[in-house]
Amino acid sequence: MPLTLEQLKIQITGDLACSDNLVSVYNNEIMRRNLGQKTKAQEKFRLEMGPYSSDYFLPIHSLFLFGEKNKHLLGSQDYFLIRDGLYTLLDFFHHHPTPKDISSIFIIHQRLASFVPLTWKKQVAFYNYEIPQAKIKDKIILSGLLNNNFVSLKAFEKKLDKIIEKYPHNKDFMALLTHRTDLFLGESQTGLSPIFDYCKILHQKLGTNIDFVSPEQVENFSIHEYSYVDFNENLLTIADDYMIHLLLSKGATPLFSHPIQIFDDDIVIPCSPCHCLRLSFQEPSWAISTDEKISKFKKIIGMDNLVNENSKFIGPSPDFFLFCRDLSHEILKQDNE
Amino acid sequence: MIKNIIITSAKTSSWVSCQVISPNLVKAYELCFEKSDYAIFDFNSRQSRYETTELAKSIFDLRPQKIIFVDHAPHPLKLLQSLAYFYDGQEKPILYFHVFGDFTLYVQEWFELEPLLQNFKVCFLAASHRQQALIQSFCENFNHSVLYCPFPVDEKKFYFSSELRKKARLHFNIPKNDFVFTYTGRLSEQKNILTMIRSFHHFLAQTSTDSRLYLAGDFDDLGIPFIGISRSKGFYYQLWRHELSLIPDELKKRIIYLGNLQNAELLELCNASDCYLSLSTHNDEDFGMSPAEALACGCRGLLSNWAGYASFADEKNYVSLVPVDFKKNRINLDYSQLPGQLFKMSAFPQQDAISEQISQHYHERFGIVAISKLLQNYHSREVSFFTAFGRQFKLLEMAFSTSKNAPFRHQTASHNQLYGNIYAPYFRAT
């Protein structure tokens, strides 16, 4: 039997108090590594989406639902923080339309609350990241995985315009950008790499004095004086993104923020000296009135009859992903409003 | 005519201390040589083999007398292989290598380079006396060409000012009589930070002195790679939180974490402080840039008697060392002596005149001007042909060949005896 959300709150509070015990911190690390054992599909996902999908330490257990075939693992803990973005979260809900046989409670990103099927609502809590005393800095890190399906050239250009609008005189930019083909749509790439188009726009908009750095370099850089712009903030692919966690933990702050809904009974867990994880046990206001979207989602799933094991990476048809992308644009639109 | 080529990487090092060290070494060389006598070349890890060959050709075309490597990465192997091709059968330049803490990590590259090096006159410049002893233990009949040359501290960025001290103590809200210990650098398992704050907590509890400890720097989760201990990102911060949770609130407020600071803020903090505290026993502690900068700001030092730190202690007694040894496969810091040493340190009077003296003393030892003079001296000396690496280095190479990810791991997940033997110069007085 899964816990109720009220019981979950008590359980997490107890677990966190216990993690103040040193042995428990180490045990948690060992457990995290065991949970880190991945199926083939997950391993491919981790590699193709790295470093955004990289593992890191949280006081509560976290995992990607994507490619998870082991129901025993999903029931092994009372709760999990779910790192999946919209694509793979919806894919999971599609494969598991009800929580039958799964006793764990899933803590999903608060901005994805609209996409939880009614049948799952009692078994879902929410998380978001909080940055106490977030200050916008003069230097800017441009972070993200560039791919026409995750962030279109048009969206990329628009975001750069927003930066210029906010900071017309800023000249200090660090680009922490990667490019991959879309593992979800499985489009093969021929001809000129789209990365040149991104670079062209980047230089047209921000000039040529941009430092390109790798994720490995940023691990050791001091970035306290930076704010960052996340080009994957539509949460399409990963909701709990290692790179964002890294930037926040090293003192960088988001240039554009999204609404967080705070409740009195939230649990706040420090993740680094600079940022916290906030757990909520109530639905945010934007989770309501999603019936139309969800029913459209179900219709599309029904229409496609879903799984095409061989041709695509995880199964569902390209329409499914395109639909997810449209939904994520709606989230963004909502946030901006 | 260009007589000297300085090789440095234009790409910023991923190690924070090296982001300071190499530019400071270049500044020291700029003072050491006439402007027309030297040129600086960029050799970085992003260069292709072709670009490296082009670089070697450009250097060869100048026919310099000396080539000086002032960066820790990339390893010079590829550049020297290309240079050897152009210099085949011709008189070769003298090679100077400023040695960093990761010298041992590149043991396989050094061995590959060995036959080629034997055709060159070579000088290794170690950053501390104990690193000098370590490198000497790796070279056969070549001890005289391993010299002591500390990394320079920029005296224009790190200095003592009584006005700044007043302002900084006001800024940090430090009561007049409080004695301030400071640690700056990575907050890492490698630096024994948790045991340091535990010891400081016990010291506060036992003595009820008006002391406080400031810590500044980023947390890291590198674990202890030499024995195969790796950690997940964010793990060490949770251990830190646990350690703090054990300290009563009235004492906890005397242990203050400031986050990562920039140079100007570091200068302020070091001026507000009375003593730099670090108990690191990390194998890459070949010099200690953070303590050097703090000493240059007039702080005293209380440091582990380990590796490069030992070179800061001298006849002036501004720096005290906590004993370290290696027994039963563990590096043991003598924590029993620490409360007494902390107490003794905190009893020193806080006088601007003394801070001024300390600052001046360490500028004279480690300032860019001082190091440029030392370099001038070294560059006027004869240098001999490289002979060979010795048995100790071969053992090290075998350890890395056998297990690159945990070359010194003992079955008890601690350090093995080979580590104790190799790094003996780091904990035994020379």
Task: Describe this structure as you would to a colleague.
The complex is a heterodimer of chains A (337) and B (430). Chain A is α/β, with parallel strands linked by helices. Chain A folds into two domains: 5-131 and 262-285, no CATH class; 139-254. Chain A is 37% helix and 15% strand. Chain A has helices at 5-18, 22-35, 40-48, 71-74, 86-95, 153-166, 195-206, 215-220, 242-249, 291-304, 318-336, and strands at residues 62-63, 79-82, 105-109, 124-130, 139-146, 173-179, 210-212, 226-230, 253-254, 267-270, 276-280. Chain A has a six-stranded mixed sheet, with helices on one face. A five-stranded parallel sheet of chain A has the order 7-6-5-8-9, with helices on both faces. Chain A is globular. Mean pLDDT of chain A is 79; it is low at 301-316. In chain B, helix 3 (77-86) packs parallel to helix 4 (107-117) and helix 13 (352-366) packs parallel to helix 14. Chain B folds into two domains: 4-152 and 371-425, Rossmann fold, CATH 3.40.50; 162-366, Rossmann fold. The model of chain B has no long low-confidence stretch (mean pLDDT 93). The longest helix of chain B is centred in the first third of the chain and has 17 residues, at 16-32. In chain B, the strands form four sheets. In chain B, strands 2-1-3-4-5-7 form a six-stranded parallel sheet. A six-stranded parallel sheet of chain B has the order 10-9-8-11-12-13, with helices on both faces. Chain B has a two-stranded antiparallel sheet with strand order 6-16. Chain B contains 17 helices and 16 strands. The radius of gyration of chain B is 22 Å and the shape is globular. With 430 residues, chain B is α/β, with parallel strands linked by helices.
Runs of chain B in which pLDDT lies below 50 for 5 or more consecutive residues are none
State Rg of chain B.
Answer: 22 Å
Q: What number is the mean pLDDT of chain A?
A: 79
User: How many beta-strand runs of chain A?
Assistant: 11
**How do the helices and strands follow one another from N- to C-terminus of chain A?**
HHHEHEHEEEHEHEHEHEEEHH
Number of folding domains of chain A? Answer: 2
CATH topology of the largest domain in chain B: Rossmann fold
User: Please, how many helices of chain A?
Assistant: 11
Q: Quick one: biggest sheet of chain A? A: 6 strands, mixed
**Largest two-chain interface:** A-B, 33 and 22 residues
CATH architecture verdict of the largest domain in chain B = 3-Layer(aba) Sandwich
Rg of chain A, rounded, reads 20 Å
Q: In percent, how helical is the residue content of chain B?
A: 40-55%
Q: Span from first to last CA of chain A?
A: 40 Å
Q: What does the oligomeric state look like here?
A: heterodimer
Class of secondary structure makeup of chain A = alpha/beta
Structural class of chain B: alpha/beta
Task: Please report the number of helical segments of chain B.
Answer: 17
